[in-house]
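Sample A.
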Amino acid sequence: MELTKSTTAFLACHWENDIAGTDGAFAPFFRAEIERRGVIGVARRLLDGARAAGGQVVYTRVAFQEGHRDLVANIPLLGIVAQQGSLLDGTPATAILDELTPGPGDLVVTNPKVGAFAASDLDERLRAAGIDTVVLFGVATNITIENTGRAAGDLGYRVVVVEDACAAASPEAHEATIASFGLLGEVATADEVLAAL
């Protein structure tokens, strides 16, 4: 694997307290697998390596305005958000986990959808920075990572999913996306990605 650091963005997807935190609204869905797989530590190592190499780090987070007035509950997952009243922008719920806090020069993109490219300026910001490759990692593998990866491929980006820096609600859900994604992009480990930088 080869990566050009000047044209590669590392997309840290949905590492928010409500999704990946120990007490977040979605902790019952995701936290056990996050801990079992040890993905926070792997993500931190990946972020540190990307920054040290001069790569662009982009955090994507899903968040909604007060009263969820920008939430369209057209899919069941967003219906759960509406019922719970979770993921409100400007609250600790949508802050990035303390262990993975954005650093100077990192971008933070907010969107009110499952995928990072939907209803956000992510594509415009990446193109303005000369990015042609996205390295994806985060929660959940079969939801945000898969959705964002498919959209990125359709938009013309080279897509790499970091398998050991992703988690889903179950091992089976994670593995199903990893098994199929090789036809849509590339799957690699954090060590392989860091070595390619």
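Sample B.
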Amino acid sequence: MTAQAIPITKNPRVLVSMIDANRRILTPYFLELIEEGNRDGSLHTAYAKEIAELLPLLTSLWLLPSVFPATKEEMKRKFYFLGDMLEKMGIPLFDDTILDVIDAFFEQIPDQK
């Protein structure tokens, strides 16, 4: 998540490999967790498969500064957006504790010049 992140946009093979690994590994894992949450009542979404496919893309591409350059404040806003979006889709992952961790994380990142 730092400015030193791998510039995957300059190497299409790395990008394709990452997307493929996310699809094969992360997507089924997220789907299993979301479906379990739906079953136990901790989550309430009608879009388990779609969210399971979207989360790896958002977290590995959209949040990567080498793909979508952003300031520290813009990155923090993306995290808040992600939490808000997931909550509206029936997956409330961000509580006050998580938001405190996000704030503390971004406080430690130096400002870009």
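B remarks: The mean pLDDT is 88. The domain at 8-108 is CATH 1.10.357.10 (Tetracycline Repressor; domain 2).
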